[in-house]
Amino acid sequence: MTTSLKNKNIDLSIIIVNYNTGDYLLKCLQSIKKSTLGRYRIEIIIVDNKSTDDSFNLAQKIKSTPKINFIFKRLSKNLGFSKGNNQALKLSDSRSKYVLFLNPDTTLDPNTLSKMIKFFETHPQVDAATANLILVKTGKTQPESHRGFPSPWNAFCHFFAPFLPKLFPKSRLFNGYFLGHLDFSKIQKIDACVGAFLMIKREVGQTLGWWNEKYFFYGEDLDFCWQLKQHGFQLYFYPHAKAYHYQGISSGLIDHSQKITQAKIKTKITAAKASTEAMRIFYQENLIDRYPQFIQPLIWAGIDFLEKYRIYKAQKT
């Protein structure tokens, strides 16, 4: 592990939690190193959740520069995404004004970080924001980077009646899960974004208490965004800064990542279970008192069905 630059003002702390991402982590760090930062200084804290591949060792070969400091720490066991982020935060410079949570299977345009920092500096109402996160497989913006909260109706349309949002992609009623009614070529206030790229004012994160450690893998980003909303903070989608997401490298659950994922069947099954357990936790902690009691059995049954289906898919790939 290296130590932070002494007597230097850090503008942005980037937190990356790694688990078995092959050479994607190294590609991510190399893209950050090519950033056009101007007057800004950043630090990148990479916490490894006891990977069994060579991803962490490959990444450690990268060297710090006068404006970019790399900090590496390997954990003794896999603590999951939330705990990994919270561990990394302890190593970050408490004086940095902003924190960016970034997935290791992403790469950035050279001007992405400077654009994001300037966006915060010139828009004081922005408490948290995500960039235009583009899926490498499709070349299109990842829908999860601009989404609504999963009300029972939104979840039903998305998981059990996906033909509805496909037929009515611009409908708030039928595609509320991804906020399809909004124009995402423009700066937009959103409910939630994916944790692959989530930037926040440090003081805001401290108010929230950072990440809910009840979540192991999946759902923690949605809960984080929910807490932002409940505390009266504003989350924005900023389309003018770009990041590129391979998606699903660690978990192996995403269909388009099957040929490049590092995940073994056991990991895929664990991720499948974690993804649906996250739904149970989120609904139990945040939504259960908002809806009539008679629909509770339907919600639990729906989550159980999704879990069985995802486990089945994981076993077959």
Secondary structure elements and pairings:
Layout: E1 12-18, H1 24-33, E2 42-48, H2 55-59, E3 68-74, H3 80-91, E4 98-102, E5 106-108, H4 112-122, E6 128-135, H5 152-160, H6 163-167, E7 188-189, E8 197-201, H7 202-208, H8 220-230, E9 235-245, H9 265-287, H10 296-316
Helix pairs in contact: 9-10
Essential attributes:
single chain; 317 residues; alpha/beta; 9-stranded mixed sheet; 10 helices; globular
Gist of the model:
The chain is α/β, with parallel strands linked by helices and 317 residues long. Helix content is 36%, strand content 17%. Strand 1, helix 1 and strand 2 form a beta-alpha-beta unit.
Structure write-up:
By secondary structure, the protein is of the alpha/beta class. It has ten helices and nine strands. The protein has helices at 24-33, 55-59, 80-91, 112-122, 152-160, 163-167, 202-208, 220-230, 265-287, 296-316; strands at residues 12-18, 42-48, 68-74, 98-102, 106-108, 128-135, 188-189, 197-201, 235-245. Strands 1, 2, 3, 4, 5, 6, 7, 8 and 9 form a nine-stranded mixed sheet that branches. β1 (12-18), α1 (24-33) and β2 (42-48) form a beta-alpha-beta unit. α9 packs antiparallel against α10. The chain is globular and about 60 Å long.
